[in-house]
Write a structure and sequence with these properties.
transmembrane; 2 domains; nucleotide binding; two-stranded antiparallel ribbon; 23 helices; HIT family, subunit A; 856 residues; Growth Hormone, Chain: A; 51% helix
């Protein structure tokens, strides 16, 4: 009696038709299409193939199977979009795409969904929201939770720069004259006022030296602490440590207020202690990288650059309006000290809001898993090198940078090159912009006699252009470069693409290169600008480079597993903190040495750095990422030029291109030096497709042309040994190979309606399994494929016979397994219809057994 069962293994898998078998504990037969099951009139014993390894002697065979040639000739296309896992849908969904969506839950169409599992519980793609399903919105993490508090945080950061500089100048000046008993009672030094007596070289020298000490202490300590906080946030959550990063600012501002109110009691040098407090809590560097880590947690990879762009837009908004608002506030209150109370309140608000209101983006389950993994790695390192060496390793201040050069399973040389290249680009973009900013202001005053008004207008315009680029241009580019093409693929092929970490894509690399080119052109404009208008225009060109930092940091998070995002961004933050310390020294030194002879030398040096960054960006290869416990995946990278013809498909007709949505589960024919085995036999040269947990290979003894296998990468013996992720990936790979074979054997366009498939699993020796490695048979079927006199179901006879004896072709003849799994032919007239009571009794018996197994 035929029954319809929903897919037991993979979400949205096509319906299976089953027949009850008295002999075997499991029998699943899948025969999509009328041409296969129209005349199906008997029970089948068929097993699902999950893992299959072909024999090593295939490499030396006199002739390769015709299937391999046919598959090789099948042309695949690739595009700049990131790979996306396939999720088949029984019907095409209505197209609903969003332009400005940052990844927090959308319409459930699978395109950049924020709810990691989607409507159907997907588990193999990006799963950032799997642990938050069903929670109310106020407990669901989203980048939008951070935008308002981070904007306040950056306004405080930007608004305090000039007032604090002026306050330090007045405090140092007071102390300078007090030490020399030169203060004129008729002309006292008033904090926040214009004190002309402080404009002497001695005071200026002391101020410059003291600010250098403050920057060195804050930058040096944050360079050490920020990566550790980033790594800890993977294990203990983002929000608590993000609140901690603001505590240093609170303590520092309290010391500043005390030093300003009681200058005779508290020496200005106590501000160094405030810098220590700020540094040991990570300072602004830690706050920035933790915000980006939080954003990465709750944003799918395809929209991560846009969301991180929002964070940078908040930063530039603070830098643009912070000084302006601070100046007006000081003028309105008439007290320089008043702005420090406001900044203290901003820090306190940020700390309380993030610590107690913003939902945590790393679930308790992921935190526990990350802590256990970290503890195991720590114990393994201590066992391998000894406890003392392990302690030295942990105390090494540069140890966090080692994540930029990962080794071991799941890594490759190409991955390491990508990470280093992205880190170099980010350090140059961030460090160059941060260090050159003050020099640009000095240069504009020197060359064009700009005052405070002109300089403030230039800085504000520069920052606002960056905000427009990050919040306007970048979302539009992402929409037309990723979201819209994904929607078209969904509409065309009836599939829902899913996001997953798969390395930087082509769009990432091109955005980064365009940003670096704009920086280079802007620096050239600075060099040749002899008018204010040209100088101003050159600055606006460099503002397009704001795309660089957001893109590099989004791209670097796509190279590592989700549990290492905080660690990798911590390493990036360490480089940024070092750039904040070293960069100003270098650029100020260059400007001081060349201002009298060639003041534009600073821009030549800056442009040279951007050229180096651009050349480094050419090293970045798309779609390289680290997979936990598995080899690195390089999408569509042909192995030794043999397997798949890969061409950019824009010029190709759509009908001859493999469905782009299907390409999500494709990695390449390259195995990065790892041998693939089917059972005990190496089949690397027969494998034409690898995915995260599976691979597909041609058959040594095909029953008919196009007969292939799909196997799990891990050599499980039985189907029930597979994990949920492995099972889902296995059948998604089966679906992909069906589309491939349809193009190879049905029609050039891959029309699935032009033929049918037999999908079978022989699960156990009694079902005919002769290789101790789960494998799925995928066999393309057309009418008359067994000749005019052959029945449609002769395929099952052959599978149970010598034609289907896969193990017999692999083993030594002395241990040759016997084929099996067949059953005597049972005609429909011999099958007795059961009564409803009999079927109800059987169903009730199964329910009791399931409850005994703990399944309700």
């Amino acid at each position: 009696m035929a029954r319809r069962l929903s897919a037991l293994c993979a979400p949205n898998f096509s319906l299976l038709e089953t027949r009850a078998l008295p002999r075997l504990p499991l029998s699943i037969a899948v025969s999509p299409g009328l041409s296969c099951d129209k005349t199906w009139d008997r029970t089948r014993a068929i097993a699902i193939v999950t893992q299959f390894r072909a024999p090593a002697d295939l490499t030396n065979a006199s002739s390769e199977p015709a299937d391999l040639d046919r598959i090789r000739r099948t042309t695949f296309c690739r595009a700049s979009q990131p790979p996306i896992s396939l999720r088949l849908s029984p019907a095409r969904r209505k197209e609903t795409t969003r332009l400005l969506g940052a990844g927090a839950q959308e319409d459930g169409d699978g395109v950049g969904e924020g709810n990691g599992a989607g409507a159907n519980g997907r588990k193999d793609g990006w799963n950032g929201f799997d642990d938050f399903e069903g929670l109310p919105w106020w407990r669901t993490p989203s980048v939008f939770w951070l935008l308002a508090p981070f904007a306040i945080f950056t306004l405080a950061f930007g608004g305090i720069i000039v007032p604090k500089l002026n306050l330090i100048l007045d405090l140092v000046c007071q102390q300078y004259f007090a030490d020399r008993t030169l203060i004129d009672p008729k002309h006292p030094i008033v904090l926040g006022s214009d004190n002309p007596q402080c404009r002497i070289p001695g005071v200026q020298k002391d101020v410059a030296a003291f600010i250098l000490v403050l920057n060195f202490v804050t930058g040096g300590l944050s360079a050490i602490v920020a990566p550790k906080l980033g790594h800890m946030s993977d294990r203990f959550g983002r929000t608590k440590l993000l609140a901690l990063a603001s505590c240093g600012g609170i303590l520092g501002e309290m010391l500043t207020i005390l030093a300003a109110k009681f200058p005779q009691t508290i020496n200005y040098r106590w501000l160094v202690l405030g810098a220590v407090f700020d540094g040991v809590t990570g300072s602004f560097t830690a706050g920035n990288i933790l915000c980006q880590s939080y954003t990465s947690d709750c944003t799918p990879p395809s929209k991560r650059a846009v969301s991180i762009g929002y964070i940078y837009a908040c930063l530039f908004t603070g830098l643009a309006f912070g000084p302006l608002l601070a100046a007006y506030f000081v003028k309105w209150t008439g007290s320089l000290l008043s702005i420090f109370y406001v900044v203290l309140g901003c820090h306190a608000f940020f700390m309380l809001f993030v610590g107690f209101v913003v939902p945590e983006s790393v679930s308790k389950r992921k935190q526990v898993a990350a802590r256990e993994k970290w503890q195991k790695e720590k114990e393994a390192r201590a066992t391998h090198v000894g406890p003392w060496a392990s302690m030295v390793h942990s105390s090494n201040p540069f140890a966090p940078l080692r994540i930029l050069w990962p080794t071991g399973p799941g890594t490759s040389t190409r991955l390491r090159m990508n990470l280093v290249a992205l880190a170099v680009c980010d350090a140059i973009v961030f460090g160059g912009s941060f260090a050159a900013g003050p020099v640009v202001i000095l240069y504009s005053g020197y060359m064009f006699d700009w005052g405070n008004f002109e300089t403030s207008r230039f800085v504000s315009a520069l920052s606002m252009v960056r905000v427009v680029v990050l919040m306007g241009v970048l979302p539009i580019v992402n929409y037309f470069g990723r979201v819209r093409p994904a929607a078209r693929r969904r509409e065309l092929w009836g599939v829902n693409p899913e996001d997953k970490n798969s390395g930087a894509d082509h769009l990432d690399t091109w955005i980064l290169r365009v940003a670096l080119v704009s920086d280079i052109l802007g620096c050239l404009g600075y060099v040749f600008a002899r008018s204010e208008a040209l100088f101003f225009g050159s600055g606006m060109i460099t503002a397009l480079g704001g795309l660089g930092s957001a893109t590099t940091q989004a791209a670097v998070t796509k190279h590592v597993p989700q549990e290492r995002v905080g660690q990798i961004l911590g390493a990036i933050g360490m480089l940024q903190a070092l750039a904040r310390v070293v960069g100003p020294v270098i650029f100020n030194g260059i400007y001081a040495a060349t201002v009298e002879t060639f003041p534009q030398a600073i821009f030549v040096a800056l442009g040279g750095l951007f050229v180096i960054a651009f050349l480094t960006s050419l090293v970045i290869k798309p779609h390289i990422c680290q997979r936990p416990g598995s080899p690195i995946r390089a999408v569509f990278e042909p192995r030794r030029g043999r397997m798949l013809a890969v061409r950019l498909g824009r010029a190709m007709t759509r009908s001859f291109a493999t469905p782009p949505a299907v390409r999500g589960i494709m990695t390449s024919t390259s195995t990065e030096g790892k041998a693939l085995k089917f059972g005990p036999f190496e089949v690397t040269d027969q494998v034409f497709l690898t995915t995260r947990h599976s691979f597909a290979l041609v058959n040594l003894k095909p029953i008919i042309q196009g007969h292939i296998f799909v196997c799990p990468s891990t050599p499980h013996l039985r189907l029930t040994d597979l994990s949920a992720d492995e099972t889902a990936d296995l059948f998604r790979t089966v679906q992909l190979t069906q589309r491939l074979l349809a193009r190879a054997y049905f029609t050039p366009t891959g029309d699935l309606g032009a033929g049918s498939f037999t999908i079978a699993v022989q699960d156990g020796a009694e079902a005919g399994q002769t290789v101790p490695h789960v494998h799925v048979h995928v066999i393309p079927r057309t009418r008359g494929d067994f000749g005019d006199g052959g029945a449609m179901d002769d395929i099952y006879v052959k599978m149970a016979g010598e034609e289907g004896n896969v193990g017999g072709a692999l083993w030594d003849r002395e241990r040759r397994p016997a084929p099996g799994g067949g059953m005597p032919r049972i005609e429909d007239v011999e099958r007795h219809v059961r009564t409803p009571a009999q079927m109800h009794e059987e169903a009730a018996r199964y329910k009791v057994t399931l409850r005994e197994m703990g399944v309700e």
